[in-house]
């Protein structure tokens, strides 16, 4: 009877302490759902024919923030890469490996396979709170689990491909696999890797393969938010170098640390860890900040009416008994750098040209015609319509009114995405230069535009018009 009362009292204490508490595990599930929906839906959304993000190798385009950029416009890629790297550095400095535990596809896939398919659906694992022991036997159920994950892996691989081949093209190509072997092979390789990774490699990918785990430690400081076991309250289980275990049971803990050591030595935090570490050893490379150990400790200590010994905080905050500092020099510096990179990205994006023009000169510098009264220069212009609709194009010579267009003599049309090479002939009948020592290159500016949208679709390019030596012209005229 007394034992029942004590047990009831323990449950009451835990219920009172944990009232309104939501485990980090559930919060991570919400983050997983949002990230999954985002990654699956984004490839399907188009505005004016442009995707949010797409590296389209087929059409040699990059789509960013629903704007199309041709491969010749990749001058903005450095800003995009800088923004991406700075974002990772900022998150790591602020919250440690928060990406790994909360948004990484590897973590999401492992939770789907281990916690949902194996544990909740098939019952291969008996307890979601014990991730240390791998299931044995049950080959039939395990095969079904692998099959279920294989189907999801194909969907995930297809979703990955959609960021390089848009869905509207993907489903057309997949109808003719023999004509698109590269895409089909890539799809199968990615799906095969996901199956091997999630079923066989598991968290060893995080520990041994992922490079992020290797570089994260150099970004940490004393204020970086991490999963931390509070030795001041729980007691020292391991030596300072984390190698030697000082105590193995509660009796030894109280003998060395005194009765004030609150750790119950239940090892619930160890059993629930997906990367198979003991957080009581301190910060470790394998920790992915999933905080499942904090959830386990919260429930155990909640039964005693005490706060968890494992929290998401910083070492300085634990030592000084305060809240962690999110605003500090390093985070401010990264935030400023991120803003500058984002401003640079949008500034470069604002310089997008709605048509492309490349100008190349022919091998012949010039021709002299009409008995030395006309000088002709030939060029090769590559025009490309980067828009989805059809436009009519032409150009004019700016900054030099004496240089005229001989060919072509009228505008020409290009469909959406089309390009064309045009031989362009410019001429002059004026004596632009009277230099008898050398041919003279004269800088000119070419303004090309869509005749139907001259105010918006326009580009300017600089080139030269070569004028011959004046004595050569004079000889031609005399002859």
What does this structure look like?
With 479 residues, the chain is an alpha+beta fold. It folds into three domains: 21-215 and 330-347, no CATH class; 226-325, no CATH class; 355-478, Immunoglobulin-like, CATH 2.60.40.10. 42% of the residues lie in helices and 19% in strands. The chain is built from 17 helices and 16 strands. It has helices at 2-17, 24-41, 77-95, 98-102, 105-121, 139-161, 167-173, 181-201, 204-209, 212-215, 231-234, 250-257, 268-271, 292-302, 315-320, 329-350, 470-478, and strands at residues 46-47, 50-51, 53-56, 61-64, 67-70, 226-229, 310-313, 355-361, 367-369, 374-385, 391-398, 404-407, 412-414, 419-428, 440-450, 458-467. The strands form five sheets. Strands 8, 9, 10, 12 and 14 form a five-stranded antiparallel β-sheet that branches. A four-stranded antiparallel β-sheet has the order 13-11-15-16, with no helix packed on it. The chain has a three-stranded antiparallel β-sheet with strand order 3-4-5, with no helix packed on it. A hairpin with a 2-residue loop joins strand 1 and strand 2. The protein is elongated and about 115 Å long. Residues 1-6 have low confidence and may be disordered.
For this entry, give a set of tags.
479 residues; alpha+beta; Immunoglobulin-like; 3 domains; 5-stranded antiparallel sheet; 4-stranded antiparallel sheet; 16 strands; 42% helix; elongated; disordered N terminus
Strand content: 15-25%
Distance between the termini: 128 Å
Roughly how much helix do the residues carry, as a percent range?
A: 40-55%
Low-confidence stretches: 1-6
Rounded mean pLDDT is: 87
- Label the structural class: alpha+beta
Number of strands: 16
Total of helices: 17
The rounded Rg comes to 34 Å
Q: How many strands, which pairing sense, and closed or not: the largest β-sheet?
A: 5 strands, antiparallel
- Tally of separate domains: 3
């Amino acid at each position: 009877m007394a034992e029942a009362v004590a047990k009831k009292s323990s449950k009451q204490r835990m219920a009172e302490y944990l009232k309104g508490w939501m485990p980090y595990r559930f919060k991570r599930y919400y983050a997983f759902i949002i990230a999954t929906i985002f990654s699956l839906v984004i490839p399907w959304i188009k505005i004016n024919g442009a995707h949010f993000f797409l590296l389209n190798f087929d059409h040699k385009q990059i789509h960013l923030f629903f704007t199309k950029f041709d491969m010749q416009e990749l001058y903005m890629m450095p800003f995009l890469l800088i923004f991406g790297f700075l974002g990772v550095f900022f998150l790591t400095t602020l919250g440690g490996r928060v990406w790994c535990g909360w948004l990484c596809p590897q973590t999401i896939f492992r939770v789907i396979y281990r916690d949902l398919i194996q544990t909740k659906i098939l019952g291969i694992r008996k307890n979601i709170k014990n991730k240390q022991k791998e299931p044995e036997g049950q080959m039939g159920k395990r095969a079904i689990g692998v099959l279920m994950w294989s189907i999801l892996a194909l969907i995930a691989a297809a979703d990955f491909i959609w960021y390089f081949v848009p869905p509207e093209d993907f489903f057309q190509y997949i109808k003719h696999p023999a004509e698109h072997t590269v895409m089909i092979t890539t799809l199968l390789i990615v799906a095969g890797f996901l199956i091997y990774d999630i079923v066989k490699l598991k968290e060893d990918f995080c520990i041994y393969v992922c490079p992020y785990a290797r570089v994260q430690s150099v970004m940490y400081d004393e204020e970086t938010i991490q999963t931390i076991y509070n030795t001041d309250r729980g007691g020292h289980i391991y030596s300072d170098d984390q190698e030697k275990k000082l105590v193995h049971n509660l009796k030894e803990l109280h003998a060395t640390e005194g009765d004030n050591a609150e750790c119950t030595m239940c090892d619930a935090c160890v059993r629930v860890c997906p990367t198979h570490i003991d957080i009581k050893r301190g910060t470790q490379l394998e920790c992915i900040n999933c905080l499942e150990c904090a959830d386990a400790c919260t429930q155990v200590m909640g039964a005693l009416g005490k706060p968890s010994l494992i929290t998401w905080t910083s070492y300085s905050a634990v030592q000084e008994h305060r809240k962690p500092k999110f605003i500090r020099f390093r985070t401010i510096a990264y935030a400023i750098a991120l803003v500058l990179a984002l401003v640079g990205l949008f500034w470069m994006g604002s310089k997008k040209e709605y048509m492309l023009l490349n100008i190349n000169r022919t091998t012949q510098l010039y021709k002299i015609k009409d008995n030395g009264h006309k000088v002709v220069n030939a060029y090769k212009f590559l025009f490309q319509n980067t828009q989805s609709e059809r436009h009519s194009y032409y150009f004019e010579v700016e900054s030099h009114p004496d240089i005229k267009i001989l060919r072509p003599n009228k505008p020409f049309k290009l469909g959406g995405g089309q390009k064309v090479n045009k031989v362009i002939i410019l001429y002059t009948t004026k004596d632009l230069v009277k230099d008898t020592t050398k041919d003279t290159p004269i800088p000119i500016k070419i303004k090309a535009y869509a005749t139907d949208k001259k105010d918006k679709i326009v580009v300017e390019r600089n080139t030269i018009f070569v004028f011959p030596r004046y004595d050569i012209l004079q000889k031609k005229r005399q002859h």
